[in-house]
């Protein structure tokens, strides 16, 4: 009887100590690790802003290959939820709660622990752009309840969680750097003379304006100005909507005579047989085109044309048909010529 009484006293004493420790342990916790990734912030953000992306680089996949997972909601948007359940990883869920593009992500983490119940914390993902590289800090933080305070007295949770964070960050680094390298190679393959050139499928476009087969280079500004103004008035009177910015449609650029065969045209939302009084109609069929943006004085965009010519030769393409210049910026609204945008198109096959 005395032995049982002694054991009971010891048990009660231990329970009292545990209760005391459960009340005086750490109120809050935060575990975090950082690494620097040789990739721009937007690339890294692409891997942390979707729950499916976290699944790919997170360390938990390798811990339990048989775990059951599900995604609810629209992945990559606030409110989407990733749930999991397995023998090794336990049961829990992660919800996207905050997204700041290329800057930070926050999630609500809920771990469902037998006997203890739900343990809720916040997942933090913070990016610091460093040019071509990005520092990422991945952490988990929250308030300690009774059991959390108790466990903080018996173990180093940071030492336990740290290696998992480091493994996940190493996986993320490998994936993001591989993507950044591929994007860099793709960009280099599309760059000519400092211009990034894209291959696009351009739809059929109907132009209304006037064509001059022998306009002198020095007179092109005046020709464009008078024709665009007249075409705009005529289209307004005919109640025909524009489909894009004023454009120069070129057939020939003659270096010898210093003249051009060009149409000052307005792209319109109309059929190919549209007629506008005092104007001509010209249709460019749907076709593959190379396009590059040029910023600067409209009269000084020859470098963009040279870049396109060199790209066509380097890629073994054939230029045919028209060259198109879209004058996106209104010079009357933007006095700084450095901000004037011209989209230059070459028809190719």
Tell me the domain tally: 2
**Architecture of the largest domain, according to CATH?**
2-Layer Sandwich
Within the largest sheet, what's the order of strands? 10-15-17-16-12-13-11-14
How helical, in percent, are the residues?
25-40%
Taken from the alpha-carbon principal axes, the silhouette is elongated
Strand content: 35-45%
Mean pLDDT: 89
- Tell me the span between the first and last alpha carbons: 99 Å
The CATH fourth-level homologous superfamily of the largest domain: START domain
H-E string = HEHHHEEEEEEHHEEEEHEEEEHEE
What kind of sheet is the major sheet?
Answer: 8 strands, antiparallel
Instruction: Calculate Rg over CA atoms.
Output: 33 Å
Question: pLDDT below 50 for ≥5 consecutive residues: which ranges?
Answer: 11-24
CATH level-1 class of the largest domain: Alpha Beta
Describe the protein's architecture and organization.
The chain has eight helices and 17 strands. The model is unreliable at 11-24 (pLDDT under 50). The longest helix is centred in the middle third of the chain and has 33 residues, at 157-189. The chain has 349 residues and is of the alpha+beta class. It folds into two domains: 24-188, Alpha-D-Glucose-1,6-Bisphosphate, Chain A, domain 4 (2-Layer Sandwich); 198-348, Alpha-Beta Barrel (Multidrug-efflux Transporter 1 Regulator Bmrr, Chain A). The strands form three sheets. Strands 10-15-17-16-12-13-11-14 form an eight-stranded antiparallel beta sheet. The chain has a seven-stranded antiparallel beta sheet with strand order 1-7-6-5-4-3-2.
């Amino acid at each position: 009887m005395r032995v049982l009484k002694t054991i009971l006293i010891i048990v009660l004493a231990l329970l009292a100590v545990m209760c005391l420790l459960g009340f005086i342990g750490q109120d809050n916790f935060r575990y975090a690790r950082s690494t620097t990734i040789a990739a721009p912030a937007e690339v890294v953000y692409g891997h942390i802003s979707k729950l499916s992306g976290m699944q790919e680089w997170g360390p938990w996949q390798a811990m339990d290959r048989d775990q059951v997972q599900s995604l609810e909601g629209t992945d990559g948007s606030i409110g989407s939820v990733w749930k999991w359940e397995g023998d090794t990883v336990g049961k829990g869920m992660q919800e996207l709660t905050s997204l700041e593009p290329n800057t930070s992500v926050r999630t609500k983490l809920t771990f469902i622990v037998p006997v203890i119940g739900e343990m809720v914390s916040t997942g933090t993902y913070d990016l610091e752009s460093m040019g071509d590289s990005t520092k990422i800090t991945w952490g988990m933080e929250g308030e300690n309840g009774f059991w959390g305070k108790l466990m903080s007295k018996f173990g180093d949770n940071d030492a336990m969680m740290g290696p998992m964070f480091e493994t996940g960050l190493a996986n993320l680094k490998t994936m993001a750097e591989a993507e950044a390298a591929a994007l860099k190679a793709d960009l280099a393959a599309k760059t000519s003379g400092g211009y990034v050139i894209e291959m696009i499928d351009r739809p059929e476009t109907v132009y209304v304006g006037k064509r001059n087969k022998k306009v002198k280079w020095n007179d092109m500004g005046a020709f464009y100005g008078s024709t665009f103004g007249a075409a705009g008035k005529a289209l307004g009177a005919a109640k025909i909507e524009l489909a894009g910015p004023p454009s120069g449609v070129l057939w020939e650029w003659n270096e010898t005579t210093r003249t051009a065969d060009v149409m000052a045209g307005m792209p319109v939302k109309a059929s190919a047989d549209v007629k506008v009084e005092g104007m001509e109609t010209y249709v460019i069929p749907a076709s593959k085109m190379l396009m590059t943006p040029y910023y600067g004085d409209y009269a000084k965009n020859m470098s963009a044309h040279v870049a396109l010519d060199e790209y066509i030769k380097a890629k073994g393409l054939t230029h045919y048909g028209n060259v198109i210049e879209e004058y996106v910026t209104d010079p009357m609204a933007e006095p700084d010529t450095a901000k004037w945008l011209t989209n230059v198109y070459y028809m190719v096959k």
